[in-house]
Amino acid sequence: MASEAEILDELRRLRARVPQLTGALAAGVDGLVLAQDTPGVEPERVAALTVTALGVAERMADATGQGDFRELLVRGVYGYVATYAAGRGAVLTVLAQDRVNLGRLLLEGRRAGARIGELVDAEAAAETEAEAEAEAEERSEATASAKAPPRTTTARPRTARAPRTTNARTTTES
Q: Which residues contact 15 (CB under 8 A, 6 or more apart)?
């Protein structure tokens, strides 16, 4: 996946743009934490819950004809949890205080999700391309070895040749 340092930089920039954020993490759609800046919160647990909520949100959007998942917002007594699609392979989850400017949270969360998605998807595309090249190379090597069986040579003893003589033509008279 994308570099943890690059994603972490984006999470920190997001927290700088929205001061009321209390945490942010990026996770793969498989629930593995890619990068996190969540003091006081167990990131693996939040990532696992995010993926669970993502599954429900995707089914809800599909069942109601609303299209692909984009974001999910949960409001609790003490603040918000917002989850954003981050490309095809990741999600961004941010935690915010109750007094956050909700419009700013949504806008900046969408932007950060898009940037993280670009990082993750670019890395995934590069990995896929490298795997495809390796498979193509293996196939071409296998094809080449199948078409041209290995040559086995046996050492033949060399014999000395007699010197060439010229053929003299003889004529017969009848």
A: 21, 24, 37
pTM above 0.85, yes or no: no
Hey, is 23 helix, strand or coil?
strand
Residue 22: how many other CB atoms lie within 10 Å: 18
Q: pLDDT per position in the chain (174 positions), as tens? A: 468 899 999 999 999 999 999 999 999 999 999 999 999 999 999 999 999 999 999 999 999 999 999 999 999 999 999 999 999 889 999 999 999 999 999 999 999 999 999 999 888 787 777 777 777 777 777 666 666 555 666 666 666 666 666 655 555 655
